[in-house]
Amino acid sequence: MATRRARCSKCGRAILVPIELEEYGYATSITMICSGCNSRGSSQQPNYPFVNNNAPPPPTYGRRPSWPQTLMAPQHSMSPPSPYGNKRAVLFGISYGNRANSLKGSLNDVHSMKYFLTQNLGFPTDSIRMLTDEPGERNPMRIPTKYNMRMAMRWLVEGCQPGDSLVLHFSGHGSREVDHSMDEVDGYDEAICPVDYESEGKILDDEINATIVRPLPHGAKLHAVIDTCFSGTVLDLPFMCRINRKGYYGWEDHRHPRAGYKGTRGGLAVCISACDDDGSAADTSAFSGMESAGALTYSFIQAMQVGRNLTYGQLLNGMRSTIRGAREKFGPDSQEHVMENRQQYAHEPQLSSSEKFDIYSKYIAM
């Protein structure tokens, strides 16, 4: 590394300073102090003798200069691991009470998902936060208001470490909003609706991505199961998988020049959603004939229980087969089938991801 001679600003002793500091425009913000003066005490810069702490940090883009450690800004250590272990989940189930748009199956969905995670995938009960609007819920922090849902998503990724497996499940209403930030390929943001969305607003895909996708470190995994309308790209992940009826697939690139980076810090984020961005989803009793359930949640759990060594392609094909079977069970002329909203079958489960992969060779690890 090239250097130049300079004088210590305290004692005038000759010292060597890297020329690359001038190359990046930091010559005016450097305080030249020799090692002798630094060892005698400088309360403002005990560990970084050449760098003025009031100066902006060195640029991190482009070519990285080969500066010695003493010339670099302090490195922030990774936050301590979560006390809730390396398997954590947040489950949102919202029925919206007695409103005209109330849902019957959302509460069943989250209880079924919690049972599946604890009994089949080894998630500890105390590592799962479930927010519902059940009438008997007395803990105000467990009600899926916009504020509580935001806090729960932050809790999910807090202290995330390599090897962690995170799950986000949402069963409720979804929405499309005009994209005012101009960073969506189709011109619309996707959103999920908290229980108080009419007064507090919805949670947009931009916020969901920034909260639980971008902080994901290398070696960590996030799986989101989103059982709602307009949910195809609700995590704003860069790539969308398209599969035809014969099982052939391809990845669509949903990155937008104005969007900036929407991926992770090296981890894998996968979203399994109920339908495409312009699709509808509904709860139904077609599967059990009794209790209502979201088609996505039910088919996901059924497909995952087939076996442990399941690829993403097998999962999607299994889910779609379950949903098609329910449609054929009642037939096109069944009054019950007509009553339960034909649009729920017009679109099928979708897969989006932070990275491309072979869906028929990559195994699911949750």
Describe the model.
By secondary structure, the chain is an alpha/beta fold. It folds into 2 domains: 69 residues, no CATH class; 267 residues, Rossmann fold. 23% of the residues lie in helices and 20% in strands. The protein is built from 9 helices and 15 strands. Helix 7 packs across helix 8. The two termini are 46 Å apart. About 19% of the residues have low confidence. It comes from Trifolium subterraneum.
Please name the defining characteristics of this protein:
9 helices, alpha/beta, three-stranded antiparallel β-sheet, single chain, Rossmann fold, 366 residues, globular, eight-stranded mixed β-sheet, 2 domains
Q: Order of SSEs, N→C?
A: EEHHEHEHEEEHEHEEEEEEHHHE
Mean pLDDT: 76
Indicate how many domains the architecture comprises. Answer: 2
List the quaternary state of the chains: single chain
How many DSSP H or I helices? 9
Write down the CATH topology of the largest domain. Answer: Rossmann fold
What's the CATH architecture name of the largest domain?
A: 3-Layer(aba) Sandwich
> What is the CATH class designation of the largest domain?
Alpha Beta
What does the main sheet amount to?
8 strands, mixed
Q: Work out the helicity level.
A: 10-25%
